[in-house]
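To assess whether the prediction recovers the assembly geometry, we first specified each molecular entity separately, as shown.
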Amino acid sequence: MTTPEKGAYARAGVNIDAQDRALSGIGKLVRKTFTEGVLSDVGSFGGLFRPDLSGMKEPVLVASADGVGTKLRVARMAGDYSSVGRDLVNHCVNDILVQGARPLFFLDYVGAGVLEPEAMKQLVSGVAHACRENGCALLGGETAEMPGFYQEGDYELVGFVLGIVDRQKILDGSRVRAKDIILGLPSSGLHTNGYSLARKIFYDDLGLAVGERIPGASSKASVTRQLLEVHRSYLPAVGRVLEHPALNALAHITGGGLTDNLPRVLPKKTRAQIRVGAWEIPQIFRLLQQHGGIDTEEMLRVFNMGIGMCLIVNPSGVGEVLDVLKRAGERASPIGTVQKGGAGVVYDLGEHET
Amino acid sequence: MTTPEKGAYARAGVNIDAQDRALSGIGKLVRKTFTEGVLSDVGSFGGLFRPDLSGMKEPVLVASADGVGTKLRVARMAGDYSSVGRDLVNHCVNDILVQGARPLFFLDYVGAGVLEPEAMKQLVSGVAHACRENGCALLGGETAEMPGFYQEGDYELVGFVLGIVDRQKILDGSRVRAKDIILGLPSSGLHTNGYSLARKIFYDDLGLAVGERIPGASSKASVTRQLLEVHRSYLPAVGRVLEHPALNALAHITGGGLTDNLPRVLPKKTRAQIRVGAWEIPQIFRLLQQHGGIDTEEMLRVFNMGIGMCLIVNPSGVGEVLDVLKRAGERASPIGTVQKGGAGVVYDLGEHET
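The predicted structure of the complete assembly is given in tokenized form:
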């Protein structure tokens, strides 16, 4: 009998036993995320979850799939895959949060040419860590070794989140009205969008090394550390106002920036008027704009520019919503309003015009 | 104002508008999969689905994530991405079917260096087609353009399926007993496993061109067409016996073959005894074995060898289960039994030893 390590499959670049070993340490991390609803153990064909439907009139499932984009390349450059798993989970959780849903469970997919045990452990522990922080179970996942498909050190990371919301509490933008106030919540950095451009500007055009600081940066962190700053989860703060009657919509500011994401929750024939001077744009965006020679309109469509989540709130409830957010440690600020007529986002660039 | 086509982001290799155009034709295909439960439209942050819980005592959600592996490379060689989407959906549907669940909805992720509209359309129409066939909605998805991460023409394709089952009807192998009969259902080919090895044998070692026939093959189809044969969904046939009291377990024969997948549903201190001569092994596996010089044990751990799904059935119900499957057009055959003692799979190789 041939041991698989020496067999034909191993010679073709796939080593089932090595994969099993790489994954064996991960089971413990995964089980730590298990919440009450989890009925299956690690390694079953599908993950089993019994949702708590008590108190729900008409339960609606909310699902989203996402990746991390080329932030994965920055992780590879840093030789540190521990943060991208957290990026992924938080991104997915935010994507269903904006429809009023709280996460039940998460599944991940990791693809690589060769699954290195240490990198795998970093990736999955990041995912597991963020799952615990968001109170959602890491119910399952898939790892795929695809020789020749991925370059050495590259890991593709895809996530799926499933959440639940009572139908009457779904946020879909239909309650948004002209004169509603748009509150912005700070991002922690680029989150998971604009990395192809940021890498081009910092590493290719400026020629920065992995550990170097960005010219003109006041932060002591290297360009790579700044770029790896973890995508925030807004669940801890926004979860506290999710059922507030004045909250009419939420928008997660991802690819497409404020420009493309705010209109996704605006009713027809309304537009968002945003005062770009209303919040402090983090220095990293100024440096990207300056070193990349990018105009402000494009910056606002590629990057979040310091706003990772928007709440659209009826004016009557703004004070209360801001109070709750403040008590949750969140620095929210009014950054614009919904206006009658037109479509999309209109920016008041004020003193920030370049 | 800069149009994004000419902007810095486009110069970094990402073209948001071209992505939007590539995706615009896909919306129609996706909407055709929508079932009664779907509450959201294409393009919302998360997909919304209201499950029909009527008649269920304790609804349990069953979720699975999967990819297609390097079968994607074969699709690239053929310049035809229309079948891998079907592979993906059927694979995922089978993975939750084995726990007794029927699919509610599916989400996909497509990653590429550059998203070519024609390839995208083929990929997503394959996914949408199979979703309709399986009666599950294509509720959402994500496409990611990651310049430099993927090679030209390579598309990563990842899927996530969510199904539902009443808790008392979950199949988890706990009812399996010694003397149970193992029925095998035919696969349509390699399904989605063993492609790194198959590609090495046929394209690298034998040097076959994309359109050539495999030496010794009786099929007139090219090696590439044979390798692209679509992974079957067992839902139409197995769905009819899912609640049969004699059905004790199901095993989807994927990566790891019969050797690794059958034991996943066997109770401790039992083993599966499989008669390799009990079914006709499709010629493609014989050709792989012969041209690759692979021993039978390894073949059985890398490939499905012609069995894509196993049913473990109490002897008293075997006749009835076989009848129902036959009426559904399924050619099931007894391929072995569950036996007391030991673990794993023991093969009776009979005349098929090489």
